């Protein structure tokens, strides 16, 4: 299977991973043959693209860090909690218990995953960004925490903190959150209140450990003091704050936003690596980039020898030189063949120079 941006979808393509609607209802099942009306439906629901099966990619396996079932269950479970807080201005004991269960389920599935590598382009609905983003940030934060060998209790608290890191946005006007143009100075100041608003509200409930609140409060702080809300730097930023900061910026950069299109995983990784030691903690960046593939399986890449290929396998220790399946040479279709950019000595002078849409 391979990822195809929504604007590149064609009639006759076969859906490889199911899509759900805004309330968790089934939108398109795996195996569905795409019609033009389905493409319009996908666009209306705000998906940035889907995974398809075709002859080029039929032997490429792609799986997420968590199952699609758990992902959607967590997204829509969190949505219900946020909606309750918006309407009632408080969370019930049942809501708190639900949050604990959602975090625990994420942690348990990730702890059982032997290969903790982010090897796919995430599919999310534009209108439901807050909930998809929160779940993704929690998954990425837990992965970093496992890489740092944190004990299970700390991982659990990290899961809670990262899952709730943006809960303060519940208290911000939706017109500001979803504004497509540039924010005014006043609007930017309002947005920057969300870490403290989330911290202040959850701390008042007295339902979570202190480290959970601190991570929420500090997830926009930067190691050089350029962050907010308190412009903390270096050792004054908690471990949770440093971890969630990196997970948050990566998922935000690789998501469609009202004011810009999503960046590629490779571009987001380059930005984070460029900020290592200044914006972001150097050690945490090191562990993070080991777990994120710049060119996920199924990505269409252009090689320096003028060939076009699909990524079929990534290597944790050599993320820029994956195994690829060549399908075009000099713009001509060829019988597909495998190039191993890491292990084949004959490919040492071949590099990935860009991406393309097939």
Summarize the structure.
The protein contains 12 helices and 10 strands. The chain has 358 residues and is an alpha+beta fold.
Could you outline the blueprint of secondary structure elements for this entry?
Layout (H helix, E strand, L loop, with lengths): L1 E4 L8 E2 L3 E2 L5 E3 L7 H9 L4 E5 L14 H21 L4 H19 L17 H19 L4 H12 L10 H4 L7 H7 L2 H12 L4 H9 L20 H15 L11 H10 L7 H10 L8 E4 L3 E7 L9 E7 L2 E9 L11 E4 L3
What's the arrangement of strands in the largest beta sheet?
9-8-7-6-10
The largest sheet is: 5 strands, antiparallel
Give the mean pLDDT.
91
Instruction: Show unreliable segments.
Output: none
Summary keywords:
3-stranded antiparallel β-sheet, alpha+beta, 358 residues, single chain, 5-stranded antiparallel β-sheet, globular
